[in-house]
What does this fold into?
Amino acid sequence: MKKSRFLSSLVVVLTLAVALVGCANTTTPKPAESAKKEFKVGLVTDVGGLNDHSFNYLANKGLEKAVSELGVTKGVVESKQMTDYETNLTRFAQDKYNLVIAVGFLMQDAVEKVSKDYPDTKFMIIDSSVTDRPNVASAMFKTEQCGYLVGVLAGLMEKEPGIPNALGKNTVGLVGGMKIPPVDDYIAGFIQGAKSVNPDIHVNLNYTNKFDDPALGKQTALSQIAGGADIVFPVAGGTGTGVIDAAKEKNIYAIGVDADQNYMAPDTVITSALKGMDVATYDIIKNAMDGSFKSGDVLFDLSNNGVGFASPIKVVPKDVVDKVNDVATQIKAGKITVTNKMPAGF
It folds into this structure.
């Protein structure tokens, strides 16, 4: 009798134990259901800052898209002077950010140093080739190609009869920021493109040595306009906004750079040379998140829509637009080769 009672009690205890284990399992989250690990991306601007309407603005736009679509946590710091670069990059690395983005060629030395000090942190630099660091991706753009396209447009516009405003002087003005490869690539392409369709065109080129001085950009453009320029093309970051202001004030035309800058002066900016830094920034963030991060040069050109030109405004004749589109097709097909080498005399 006692043995029977003992066995009955044991069955009850075991049944309760199994039930409790089952309940515990239903309340413990499975690993797959756990919250996704935070992925932090830090962006360091060049001295032009986020409001340059150009390359810093576009890089941040790509980061904002990654926040919205990929759920990354962002940090942004604006460099006030070039001596800030190393400090700002280091700050994000010390704070265990997964990816640190350096916007601009001028940050190469800082990226090379900080990426060596923090080998477990991934870095991205825009417009500078760092190929000897396994934790650095370099977003490189063939902007000579889009520079060529807007150069073709400018060269043809100078030859078109009956276009409103002061066209007809067969003179264009180029305003560069600093004389560095990302600036000169655009300019080299523009000059080649303009002269390919208009060999007699006059090109006035000046450098401001600033990416954050709209007043200096305006002053430089006004001088070029006084010298006969009736189309101006700034490749100068925030300094270029002053160039567009000058064109608007003097009722001539401007060509935007990096982003579609028509919104700044809709009747003045006839097109823009486009540089997909927002696309590159988003793509490299995504690659870093999903484990497909690639170090070294990551190239963007016409063939993968990394560069291009904005839809021209109505004042640009259809035959000019058609010609530019045809040239773009020929560049993609390898029938036209554009070099980033500055033409003789510039």
User: Anything to note?
Assistant: The chain has a mean pLDDT of 90. Residues 2-27 form the longest helix (26 residues). Residues 36 and 283 are 20 Å apart (CA to CA).
